[in-house]
Amino acid sequence: MSVLVFLFACTAEDPRVDLMKSWGEKIFIPSYQSFVEKTQSLHASTIPFCADPNLSSLTDLQQAWWDARAPWKQMEILAFGPYKSFPERLGPKIDFWPIRKDTVDEILVGEQSLAPEVFDSFGVSSKGLPVVEYLLYSVLPADIQSERGCEYLIGSTYDLSQKAETIYNAWSPDGENYLGHLTEPALHEGDYQTIEDSLAEVVNRLSHTIENIRADKIQKGLGSEVGEVQVSLVESHFSHRSLQDIRNNLEGIHAVYFGADQGLGIDDYLLARGYNLDEDFTQRYERCMETINSLEQNGTLVDNMYVDSQGVLYLSDQLAALQTFIKGEIIGAMSLWLTFNDADGD
Q1: Rounded distance, CA 119 to CA 182, Å?
Q2: CA 227, 231, 235: angle at the middle one, nearest 5?
Q3: Secondary structure class of 122 (helix, strand, coil)
Q4: What is the sign of the dihedral through the CA atoms of 75, 32, 264 and 80?
Q5: Is residue 195 within 8 Å of residue 14, measured between CB atoms?
C-alpha cells in the first residue's frame, strides 16, 4: 500500500474532501498562479517591444504568449464556476474562440481608445488570448511598426493579466475561495449541496473536456459537414499551437488522475476503494499523446487536416476511447454519476 493510499485509509476526514483539497491546493490554484505570472510577464514584455519593434523581440513575445497559454489550457477542465458563471464568466473574457477577425480588424483601423483601462468594457471577441495571438502572429509580423497594433497589444495583454489575476483570486482561499465551495459545499451557498456533487463536477469535466476537443477542436475544423477544411474554426491556427493546446488539455486530465507531486489523485482514491485502473488509464492516455506526436511529424493540425485527415480522425478515436473509459470505468468506480456537458462554444 502506497503512503498516499495509507493516508486515505487512515484519515479522519472524508477522503473525498482530502482529494478535492489536494487538487485545489496542488494543481488548480498553482496553475492559475502560474497563469498570472506568465501573463504579467507577457504584458511587461510588450512595453520595450513597442518602444523598439524588432523581429527578435517579437519572437520573444510570441514565446511568452505560447508559455502563458500552457497553464490555461491545462486548466480547461475547470470550465465551470468563475470560468462560466455570471457575473464573472471569465472563460470567454480570457479565451473566446474562434476569433472574429473582422471585429479585431475594424478596431485596428478605427480611432477608439485602446488604453489598457478601457478593455474591461470590450466584448469578448475583442480581447483575450486569441486576439493577442492574432496580433503577435499575423498583424505585427505583417507590419512590425504598426503603432495601432502595438497599442492594441499593450492594452489587450494588460487586460489579460488582470483577468488572470481575477480568476486566480476567485479560486484562492485568500480571495473569494471558490475552492471552498467544492471542499465544504455545506458552508457555502452555491451549486453544490454535498462533496459528492462537487466531486462529480470535477471528474465529469475530464470527460467533457475530451468531448469538446473532439467536437470543437477537431470535427469543426475538418469541415466534414461542408466538405472542406475550415481553417478559421481551428483553435490557435495563427500560432500553429493547435496540437499543443490539445496536449495541454490532456496534461490537465492526467494531473487530476495521478495527482501532483506529493498530492492525491483519482488513482489514490480508487486504490483505497479496491480498484486499480492506472494501467488502463495510462494506456489510453499514452495512445492519445503518441498520436499527437505522430501528427506533429507531418506539421500543424491544419496541415494534417489537409494531408492526413484519417490521422486526425484516428486522434479523435483515441480521445473517444479515453473519454468512454472515464465516463464508464472511472466514474462508476468512484460511485459518481454522469452530468450534462454544458459547453456552449464561448
Answers
A1: 31
A2: 125
A3: coil
A4: negative
A5: yes
* Cα–chain center distance at 91: 9
Which residues, 6 or more positions from 25, have their beta carbon under 8 angstroms from its beta carbon?
Answer: 179, 263
Please give the Cα distance from 121 to 119 (Å, whole number). Answer: 5
User: In one letter, which amino acid is 119?
Assistant: F
Q: Which residue has the cell 507590419?
A: 143
Question: Cα–Cα distance between 195 and 217 in angstroms, integer?
Answer: 32
> Which among 196, 161, 190 has a CA at the least distance from the CA of 177?
190
Please name the residues in contact with 83: beta carbons below 8 A apart, sequence gap of 6 or more.
89, 90, 91, 167
The CA distance from 263 to 279, in Å, is 19
Joined grid coordinates for residue 32: 492559475
Task: Name the amino acid, one letter, at 329.
Answer: E
Can you count the helices (H) and strands (E) in the chain? 18, 0
Rg, C-alpha atoms of the chain? 21
Whether the Cβ atoms of residue 118 and residue 150 lie closer than 8 Å to each other: no
* Distance between start and end Cα atoms, the chain: 44
What is the spatial distance between Cα 191 and Cα 171, in angstroms, rounded to a whole number?
15
pTM above 0.90, yes or no: yes
The answer to whether 209 touches 288, Cβ cutoff 8 Å, is: no
Query: What gap in Å lies between CA 322 and CA 315, rounded to an integer?
Result: 11
Per-residue tens of pLDDT for the chain, all 346 residues: 455 555 555 555 899 999 999 999 999 999 999 999 999 999 999 999 999 999 999 999 999 999 999 999 999 999 999 999 999 999 999 999 999 999 999 999 999 999 999 999 999 999 999 999 999 999 999 999 999 999 999 999 999 999 999 999 999 999 999 999 999 999 998 889 999 999 999 999 999 999 999 999 999 999 988 999 999 999 999 999 999 999 999 999 999 999 999 999 999 999 999 999 999 999 999 999 999 999 999 999 999 999 999 999 999 999 999 999 999 999 999 999 999 999 854 4
**Distance (Å, whole) CA 38 – CA 165:** 11
